[in-house]
From TrEMBL:
Native source species: Phaeocystidibacter marisrubri
Function comment: Specifically dimethylates two adjacent adenosines (A1518 and A1519) in the loop of a conserved hairpin near the 3'-end of 16S rRNA in the 30S particle. May play a critical role in biogenesis of 30S subunits.
Protein's name according to its UniProt entry: Ribosomal RNA small subunit methyltransferase A
PANTHER family: DIMETHYLADENOSINE TRANSFERASE (PTHR11727), DIMETHYLADENOSINE TRANSFERASE-RELATED (PTHR11727:SF7)
Enzyme Commission number(s) of this protein: 2.1.1.182
GO MF terms held by the record: 16S rRNA (adenine(1518)-N(6)/adenine(1519)-N(6))-dimethyltransferase activity; RNA binding
Length: 255
């Protein structure tokens, strides 16, 4: 069987370097779950190393050609290949309430959407790891005060401990992307923040939609309790607040 053809509309860039794939697979701790879900396995360069681990591996793949390849080359997967779009599939229909880790070499064109879905499913996903466009991985891991700090930085760091691991050059992919890639991990915090996630997300997104303005101007569509702490935060710009301050601000939000 010939190799799978990389499809531009799916954002496919197949990793060729097996040592990098092994490092990504080994970035998972294996603690707190008994199943791993790989997104977009393609021809299985990462999958082969996941299957060596003492944890049940599942894969979700939207590309039918890749599914056929995986069925032919990884008989161990057999009934654990989900031919669906990760962004539109309800994994509780398979995993129920059981926790699972998520990993992958993520298509750059939907990587942010993947992170948002992981956040929505955070109660089921104690660990998340993989390869992104370098700028996206760096943005998620960066701290307040940086121009790269943004919505994903705040939301991810509120619920997970985020670590940027290493950078990957373009030439180890087929076809090579035009940008460098970055590998990062997110491990869920032992204690979730005391905040309503939907309100939290609204406050953070509203704040960064006009990031050059002070929060008082950027979030003027929202109303907060007037306290000295709130007033001090509203005098800053979004990139100057850590996730704890955003949680405090959200909890001061008036309905």
């Amino acid at each position: 069987m010939t190799k799978v053809r990389a499809k531009k509309h799916l954002g496919q860039h197949f990793l060729k370097d097996e040592s990098i794939a092994e490092r990504i697979a080994n970035s998972l701790s294996g603690e707190g779950y008994t199943r791993i879900l790989e997104i977009g396995p393609g021809m299985g360069v990462l999958t082969q190393f996941l299957l060596k681990q003492p944890i049940e591996t599942w894969v979700v793949e939207v590309d039918g050609e890749s599914v056929t390849w995986l069925q032919a080359h990884f008989p161990k997967l057999s009934d654990k290949i989900i031919h669906k779009d990760f962004l539109r599939f309800d994994f509780s229909s398979i995993f129920g309430d059981e926790p699972y880790a998520v990993i992958g070499n993520f298509p750059y064109n939907i990587s942010s959407q993947i992170v948002f879905k992981v956040l929505d499913e955070r109660d089921s996903i104690p660990e998340f790891a993989g390869m992104f466009q370098k700028e996206v991985a760096y943005r998620i891991a960066t701290k307040p005060g940086s121009k790269d700090y943004g919505i994903l930085s705040v939301l991810c760091q509120a619920y997970y401990d985020v670590e940027y691991l290493f950078t990957v050059d373009e030439h180890v992919f087929d076809p090579p992307p035009k940008v460098k890639s970055g590998v990062m991990t997110m491990k869920r915090k032992d204690t979730p923040p005391d905040v309503d996630f939907k309100k939290f997300k609204t406050v953070v997104k509203t704040a960064f939609n006009q990031r050059r303005k002070t929060l008082r101007n950027a979030v003027k569509s929202l109303t907060f309790d007037h306290t000295p702490e709130t007033e001090a935060m509203l005098g800053l710009r979004a990139e100057q607040l850590g996730y704890r301050e955003f949680i405090q601000l959200t909890n001061a939000l008036k309905l």
